[in-house]
User: Fold ABC transporter permease from Fervidibacillus albus.
Amino acid sequence: MNTFRFECKKLRKKKTTWLAFFITLIGIIGFYLFHLSVAEKVHQKNIARLDYLFQMYASGAEEYALEMKKAEEAGDTEIAEEMHNLMEIYQKASEYVKQEKEYFANEDWTHLIDRHIRSLEPFVEDYDTLGYHIEETQISLFTLRATLEEKQRLQKYDIVPFIQSTTYPNDTFLPTIYDDFSGNALEEWEKMTERYGRFGFYFLYQLIQLFFLPIIVLIGVFLFGNGISSEAGKKKKGLHFYATLPFSKGRLFFAKYASGLLYTLGFTFMMLLTPIVTSLFFKGVGSLKYPVLVYDGSEPNPYGSQYNALDPKNDTFHFIELQDYFLKILFFSIILVIFLYSCYFLLSLFIKNPGINIILLGSMTFVGMKFFPKAYNPFTYMDVHKNITREIATIQFNPAIEYQTGMILMFVISLIITFISYRLFTHRMRLS
Assistant:
């Protein structure tokens, strides 16, 4: 235990480690503030767009009122009636937009979500007749169904939604993997479905979708996983000191391994908590009941993989709450830290340069995650968001790719790697 405390103390005394820690911390806070400012700008832009539409419709109503008056004075009843009808249409439109603007300005999401639901229901119920197109590409029925249910859940629990860059009820969609746009349609779709989370929980949820977790863990193992490699160079000051003391290599191994692992875990959790704590000083944390889409997946075609195809009409889905999502993230974070830290620790026994080690581990992670999406490849589970939502399993038509499988697989491999590291250190490495 004294050796463990001594190793922890050495980690705390490294000034470069603390500098990297604060740079990472400030970077996350800065990114949240930037994201928040963009979200507020988009929200104000939506209000300004509605104000412009209100002015346009109100001005149009006035012009048609003047035209109607001129027609009445000229005795042209047919034109007067036509202008009267147009005037009423523009008046109703201006009143509708004015109310919509007030809802946005006051952030009255209850009424806005209700309007969104009522506008979506006809498209879902009569999809074959109505449909919904961007350019010439139709939005999938799966996306319409998922969007509708998401909004119904927002309405049920009175949840504030993400900010999206549109004010039209029919355009606030939840993006899914069932849509395949290209060209201008893709650009329009991405613009319509881009979401901005102003609250701490929402922002963290979006960060995790951007590979935040594996990046933070890799930074953590780079900072705290060099307990042996940093002392095994030409001078070997640290290990030479231990060689003069009366205790085993096994004791030294576990002191160095456990101290670095503990600090990496602490670093990871602090970085995960940073957006939430920061948001308390601005917009708040948001609701943990926010719905997260989970794909139920499609079974592989029995006639061969070439016949695999997603079925937007019949494929099912369900939602979990953000609190359940974060609970899975918490458990996965622990296993991910142990796995990547164990891999890095093993590399450090062979290569004494921390920079080379982190490049190798980062490359292994990227290649394994990107090009080998198999159920028993531990790097398949690096994108924890797509595994919790079963996006990878659905796209690959492989039900075996599951969150639980990834947790067990990475933990077992971590134990094996740690045992190999222990054997190498205690039987092959020299301390002096």
About this structure: Strands lie at 133-134, 137-138, 163-164, 195-196, 291-295, 317-321. The radius of gyration is 29 Å. The chain has two domains: 109-196, 201-427.
